[in-house]
Write a structure and sequence with these properties.
By secondary structure, the protein is an alpha/beta fold. It folds into 2 domains: 149 residues, Aspartate Aminotransferase, domain 1; 230 residues, Aspartate Aminotransferase, domain 2 (3-Layer(aba) Sandwich), CATH 3.40.640.10. The protein contains 15 helices and 12 strands. It binds pyridoxal-5'-phosphate.
Length: 391
């Protein structure tokens, strides 16, 4: 690919692949932050995705134009709901906050005493959240924070036995497996009149996954705004039934006595999240995917020039919009193991970050979704150079 063609290609694709604009001050440099090449993807620990330029513009607008926060929150919720085909919506301080507030709302409804009592539900209150044992995950703390107890079930029989007057909500994590299918989970909840919440935080892109989740029949579902939706880092979305979302909102800011008062969302973030949804719905995601494939294919082909090294592009249907390069090498030939190659990339110049969590499974992955123009060449060359140094 010629430089000019690749430049045009970048200009046609989203902001995350365009070189960063230049600024009068280099804040990171002033603060001693080390720049790095992101071959890891939109990780929260590394700042998430880049916001769409339109999102930054909306945030700038909100910074200069003040509004009544409750009215703005409601109007943004109605607009997002209309865009995604949901009854209602609200912007939260991340998907985790959506889970906390939704759980609280299912426990309290609009009962002032219960709203005041959480996270210490009184005797007899609905304070149980049911989920499948296999859906226990990193973020289930968010369900317990408003004072709910987690009830784990495996079979449909367990589920029916667990549902009772104390049940506040049935929780489901999208794409996680379990004995009880998503369809049965929803059917049983409807039959026994229990509200449901589905965490679908990281299923976007494609944006169609969000539209589909809304239609599945869950009463509520939530998404992370700062990952694939490319909204502000700290926001999330709660979508679904208006009565339940109103109860969730009653547990949060700006209600001073609410347990969730600290999970405040800025007006910049309300507008930023709304515009992120608008842009995502208009954006050509297939063109992004073609671009990511081209970059991963380039890196794999370049690294495959080395003898005894296999670089393969993998498109996992579960993470379909993030193709990645999976790297294997003969460790008798290149005397460096996977952990040490990762460290050598991090400690080299420039610093390159790769997907670390897969190292635990003995797999060495890196992605192209967050690379800026030309960085695919640097990543491929650095990987080859380090392997060759260890020949
Ligand atoms: C990232 C993630 C969350 C948390 O999202 P935040 O917006 O960072 O609060 C929740 N659930 C799942 C499945 C996630 O991947």
């Amino acid at each position: 690919m010629s430089d000019r063609r690749s430049f045009l290609q970048y200009m046609l694709i989203g902001a995350s692949t365009v070189g960063a604009p230049t600024f009068a001050r280099d804040y990171h440099k002033e603060l001693g932050q080390k720049p790095f090449i992101n071959a890891i993807g939109a990780y929260s620990s590394l700042g998430g995705e880049e916001m769409w330029p339109e999102v930054i513009e909306a945030m700038d607008y909100a910074a200069h134009n003040k509004a009544d926060m409750e009215e703005l929150h409601d109007a943004v919720g109605r607009r997002i709901a209309e865009l995604v085909g949901s009854e209602y919506a609200c912007v939260t301080a991340g998907a985790t906050s959506a889970i906390m507030l939704a759980t609280a709302g299912c426990m309290s409804g609009l009962d002032p005493e219960l709203l005041h009592a959480l996270p210490h539900p009184p005797e007899g209150a609905k304070d149980e959240v049911i989920l499948q044992t296999s859906h226990q995950y990193l973020y289930d703390r968010a369900l317990r924070t408003p004072g709910a107890k987690l009830i784990f079930v495996d079979s449909e029989e367990d589920l029916r036995a667990a549902i009772g007057p104390k049940t506040a909500m049935m929780f489901y994590v999208r794409k996680m497996k379990g004995q009880i299918s998503l369809e049965r989970w929803i059917e049983i909840a409807k039959e026994l009149n229990v509200p449901t919440l589905c965490d679908a935080a990281t299923t976007v892109p494609p944006i169609q996954a969000l539209l589909d989740t809304v239609q599945l029949g869950f009463d509520l579902c939530c998404f992370s705004g700062g990952k694939g939706l490319r909204g502000p880092y700290s926001v999330g979305l709660l979508l679904g039934r208006k009565d339940l979302i109103m109860a969730a909102k009653a547990n949060g800011s700006p209600n001073h006595a609410a347990f969730g008062r600290s999970m405040k969302v800025a007006p910049e973030e309300y507008l930023g999240m709304m515009v992120a949804v608008e842009v995502a719905l208009q954006h050509d995601e297939e063109a992004d995917l073609v671009h990511y494939k081209k970059l991963t294919n380039y890196m794999a082909a370049s690294i495959n020039e080395l003898d005894g090294v296999t670089a393969e592009v993998v498109i996992d249907p579960e993470q379909g919009y993030e193709p990645f390069v999976k790297l294997e090498w003969d460790e008798n030939k290149y005397k460096i193991n996977k952990d040490d190659l990762k460290l050598a990339l991090r400690n080299g110049d420039p610093c390159i970050e790769i997907r670390a969590i897969f190292l635990a499974f003995g797999e060495f992955h890196f992605t192209a979704n967050m690379l800026k123009a030309g960085e695919e060449i640097i990543v491929a060359n650095r990987v080859k150079a380090i392997l060759l140094e260890n020949l």
